[in-house]
Design goal:
Layout (H helix, E strand, L loop, with lengths): L1 H53 L21 E7 L7 E7 L19 H48 L1
Antiparallel strand pairs: 1-2
């Protein structure tokens, strides 16, 4: 009987630690989402300033080339791989690739004398993407911890039933 009681208390302590970790991760996720929202708002404001300065026709979807001859290549991509902390959970990361020689910077679609506000907007959106990737990684960790907590709660109930 003593061994089951010790196991029961160990499971309870482990559950407490997992719940505290979950709360810390939730707080971190909320902060990341707030940062992401601020970055998006900053990008939208800079884009609006640029449209006001350059004119609404100078910064619009009409500037994006639709020619099939012009290759549009991405310079960043998102890749997943197993996390070091939680091997069962995938971790996502932004990977930058080398630009190809014939590739043009998308900023140049809006004119060769680019407004600083447009560059700031681009930077804000890149930062927002980084915040989003970090938030996704934390969400995956939270899902993993929730599954662990569920399994430990079931173990706790079975230990409690066998104790009686």
């Amino acid at each position: 009987m003593k061994m089951k009681s010790e196991n029961y208390h160990e499971v309870c302590e482990l559950l407490d630690k997992l719940y505290l970790d979950t709360i810390c991760l939730m707080e971190e996720e909320i902060q990341l989402k707030i940062n992401m929202e601020k970055s998006m708002i900053e990008g939208e404001n800079n884009l609006a300033k640029c449209r006001y300065i350059m004119g609404s026709n100078s910064v619009s979807a009409m500037n994006i080339p639709l020619n099939p001859e012009e290759d549009i290549h991405c310079t960043t991509s998102v890749e997943s791989f197993p996390s070091e902390l939680f091997p069962e959970v995938n971790k996502y990361e932004i990977i930058s690739t080398e630009p190809k020689p014939n590739m043009t910077n998308p900023i140049k679609w809006f004119g060769y004398f680019t407004q600083k506000n447009l560059l700031k907007s681009q930077k804000s959106y890149e930062t927002s993407l980084q915040w989003a990737i970090e938030a996704i990684n934390i969400q995956n960790q939270l899902k993993y911890l929730c599954h662990k907590c569920k399994a430990l709660r079931l173990l706790k109930v079975s230990l409690l039933e066998s104790k009686e």
